[in-house]
Write a structure and sequence with these properties.
binds pyridoxal-5'-phosphate, 36 helices, pyridoxal phosphate, globular, alpha/beta, Glyco_trans_35
């Protein structure tokens, strides 16, 4: 058990400051104080971290190209149970813990939901106590920092590695590995007629591991997130390759080589659910996959795990298709290094691999050209080709039409389809919410579902309630514990007991007071950072998430314009409008022009509305710069309304919807993604639903029948706001308005913004009406919190453990081994 004693902590803290910086506490900056505290905590956990490395049970390795960790200090203190002691100890040293918390860098090694999910899963794997570890990339630059200049997004490099290091990490040079690119593959038969494969003239890149401890809640379990940095090989490795030696020939070539290697872990691709087709991206994917799989084999050899026993000892999870090369890489090691036959290698591989699909957007489906794969990763290409050949043969043997074989093939028309590779080679394929999984089964992956239905399952996403409630909303967490005891912290299903208080006015008032306090805190933040004054008595109506057309921030801001017109039309009437603050936070991928136009529109509308005296502060629009995990932790506890308004069928799950619900916001939503599960928990009377159903959207997509032009011409109010985009009504908006207008009218409004906006406005009106009845509102808020327990990622992880990782592959899979 890791324990802490205030006196010893203070001594340790002083000593560490002296060791690291040779200065007194008084001389230290907040950043230095953070570093010292971080090292003190690492010292305290080091024994348990080492101990967790011993593999007594099955280990899970979660491969993800993104881990959006956020700050670690508070969540580590919470999980270790140290917060109070350390706060007091620091206090006695004249140091404020909250200030140190704010000086921690926020590692943004992810774009949005997918990366954040991976981080929540790490927290939950450690907290439920399994040996579950992450593999990823240590990007030198994470997601860009967003600034607004003249209302437009400007991207600034994110320099999270101040002085090239991060205090939570530990670098382990003795565990560096070599990843091989390009070159030629040689196949020879040896004397005993065994095929011997050698990789010649490759370009070697060294993968240097950096370990970050992942601390479980109250259980001594400390797992590891291992992220790899790319470098040119050090001398020991260099000897093994002729390439490195040749590069030493000229200084210029040596520099080129250094650039080639270091570029790989240089930057995170800032695309969110867009397929990045660049060669560098493929290098990145193979880089962390090859290092990770080699690392797993090294551990297995050390613990004398036989290849046959691998499926009992390890589970490898592929988070979306970016780590799909785990499959051929594992095959490569089993075939070329372990000397197993194809069938033996295949039977092991498909009992180890499981895969999560995260999106049905076509543009996000990864495909690589065969030529690129062949040149960059020749051995991977050969193995994928063989997997495909055997699979396609099998399909043909079953008598399927060529059309169907074409659709299901892994390689077709010069391209490699990574999702198909994952489906064919995994024992489990899961979607991330009920509707999403249903769409996978019935639409997008229907061919595969008909073929191997037993592989498909749903795992509705979840969130780390420790970070998203306990740590970010301590007042609410304390109230809950006061009311129902603390069992809910380990098992969130106990939150349900809050329903007992649904008619208790004291509790409801206290709930309102806590929300109000959080709103005041956020208002202060916005005053300081955006210099906008907002009224904590207004409804805080929040949409924070990546900017994407399918998420429909556009519908939200067009509705704000409608309200603005309504106020202007009735300027003399003193409309009885419930005051509202519309809060946005969103980054757009730098190359996604329409998304950037929408950012500009929101900023321009904000200026227009916020500065018009006729509005009398009834509505305000605030776009908070640089949305990320740390901001989310401030914004979400302060929200009254959670905007989850994606075009139905497009949002696979969403997770911010869960964060808001757990913090007592009411959800304004389409029945998309995990909003369906929220609806199942609280019923339509405790949320605000609107919009096209999944079936209606699918039918429009299949059979047509939607014309945004017709709507535009038949609905005057709609026409007015759409015309605002291009008639100069919105100062500062230029050609961006035309771009948006064209998306809506010329290109027939792909995401049904104009089709859904009337119903959306009605739902917003219902919200305004309800907010007047504070008791009713607070009741609904309480019911939402009480029923948010299933959205803890502990629940999700327990399902992965039971149905996927520890169950391994079931008999159906075993019987269907090719
Ligand atoms: C939770 C979270 C997301 C995901 O938001 P969605 O609304 O589900 O897309 C994105 N970014 C950050 C910083 C988050 O914390």
């Amino acid at each position: 058990m890791i324990t802490i004693n205030k006196k010893r902590f203070k001594e340790h803290f002083r000593r560490k400051m002296n060791n690291l910086y040779a200065q007194t506490l008084e001389e230290a900056s907040n950043e230095e104080l953070f570093n010292v505290l971080c090292y003190v905590i690492k010292d305290m956990i080091s024994k348990d971290w080492e101990g967790s490395r011993i593999y007594q049970e099955k280990a899970v390795f979660y491969f993800s190209i993104e881990f959006l960790l956020g700050r670690q200090l508070k969540s580590n203190l919470l999980n270790l149970g140290f917060e109070d002691t350390i706060r007091q100890g620091l206090n006695e040293l004249g140091i404020d813990l909250d200030e140190i918390v704010e000086s921690e860098p926020d590692p943004a090694l992810g774009n949005g939901g997918l990366g954040r999910l991976a981080a929540c899963f790490l927290d939950s794997m450690a907290s439920v106590g399994i040996s579950g570890h992450g593999y990823g990339i240590r990007y030198k630059y994470g997601l860009f920092e967003q600034k607004f200049v003249n209302n437009s997004q400007v991207e600034v490099p994110d320099n999270w590695l101040i002085n090239s290091s991060y205090s939570w990490e530990t670098v382990r040079p003795n565990r560096a590995l070599l990843v091989k690119y390009e070159g030629k593959i040689n196949m020879e038969k040896d004397d005993e007629d065994n095929l011997k494969v050698t990789h010649k003239d490759y370009i070697p890149v060294m993968a240097m591991p950096y370990d970050i401890p992942i601390i479980g809640y109250g259980n001594e379990c400390i797992n590891t997130l291992r992220i790899w940095k790319s470098e040119i090989p050090t001398r020991d490795f260099g000897k093994s390759s002729s390439y490195a030696k040749n590069q030493a020939a000229s200084y210029e070539d040596a520099l080129k080589y250094k650039y080639y290697a270091e570029e790989i872990s240089q930057t995170l691709y800032p695309n969110d659910s867009n397929y990045a087709g660049q060669l560098l991206r493929l290098k990145q994917e193979y880089f962390f996959v090859s290092a990770g799989i080699q690392d797993i084999f090294r551990k297995c050899r050390r613990y004398k795990i036989t290849t046959q026993d691998l499926p009992n000892k390890i589970a490898i999870h592929i988070n979306d298709t970016h780590p799909a090369l785990c499959i051929p890489e594992m095959m490569r090691i089993l075939l070329d290094e372990e000397g197993l036959s194809w069938d033996e290698s295949w039977n092991i591989t498909i009992k180890v691999m499981s895969y999560t699909n995260h999106t049905i957007l076509c543009e996000a489906m990864e495909r690589w050209s065969e030529d690129i794969m062949k040149k960059l990763l020749p051995r991977m290409y050969m193995i994928i080709e063989e997997i495909n050949k055997r699979y396609v043969n099998d399909l043909r043997k079953k008598g399927y039409s060529e059309e169907k074989v074409k659709r299901m093939a892994i390689m077709y028309d010069g391209e490699i389809r990574m999702a198909n590779l994952c489906i064919v080679s995994s024992y489990s394929i899961n979607g991330v919410a009920q509707l999403h999984t249903k769409l996978l089964k019935e639409e997008v992956l229907n061919d595969f579902y008909e073929e191997e239905s037993y592989k498909f399952n749903n795992k509705t996403n979840g969130i780390a309630h420790r970070r998203w409630l306990i740590s970010s909303n301590p007042e609410l967490a304390n109230l809950i514990t006061k009311l129902i005891g603390n069992k809910w912290i380990k098992d969130t299903s106990h939150l349900k007991e809050l329903e007992k208080f649904v008619d208790d006015e004291n509790v409801l008032n206290r709930l309102e007071e806590i929300k109000f306090n959080n709103k005041v805190k956020l208002a202060n933040y916005i005053k300081e950072n955006n210099n906008i004054t907002i009224d904590p008595n207004s409804i805080f109506d929040v949409q924070v998430k990546r900017l994407h057309a399918y998420k429909r921030q556009l519908m939200n801001i067009l509705h704000v314009l409608c309200l603005y017109h309504e106020i202007l039309d009735n300027v003399d009437l003193e409309l009885d409008i419930q005051p509202r603050t519309f809060i946005f936070g969103a980054k757009a991928a730098p190359g996604y022009y329409l998304a950037k136009c929408i950012i500009k529109l929101i900023n321009c509308v904000a200026n227009l509305v916020n500065n018009d005296p006729r509005v009398k502060g009834k509505i305000k629009v605030v776009f908070i710069e640089n949305y990320g995990v740390s901001l989310a932790e401030k914004i979400i506890p302060a929200a009254n309304v959670s905007e989850q308004i994606s075009t139905t069928t497009k949002e696979a799950s969403g997770t911010s919807n869960m964060k808001f619900m757990m913090n007592g916001a009411l959800t304004l939503a389409t029945l998309d993604g995990a909003n369906v599960e929220i609806y199942q928990q609280v019923g339509k009377e405790n949320m605000f639903l609107f919009g096209l159903s999944a079936k209606q959207v699918l039918d429009y997509n299949k059979y047509g029948g939607y014309s945004s032009k017709d709507l535009y011409h038949s609905n005057k109010l709609l026409k007015r706001v759409v015309d605002d985009l291009v008639n100069g009504f919105i100062p500062g908006l230029g050609k961006e308005g035309r771009e948006i207008y064209d998306a809506l009218i010329t290109y027939n409004d792909e995401y049904f913004v104009l089709r859904d906006i009337d119903e959306y406005a009605d739902a917003q009106q219902r919200i305004s009406n309800l907010y007047k009845d504070k008791i009713k509102w607070n009741k609904m808020s309480l019911i939402n919190i009480a029923n948010s327990g299933i959205f803890s990622s502990d629940r999700t992880i327990n399902e992965y453990i039971e149905d996927i990782w520890f169950k391994g592959c079931d008999e159906d899979v075993q019987n269907n081994i090719i």
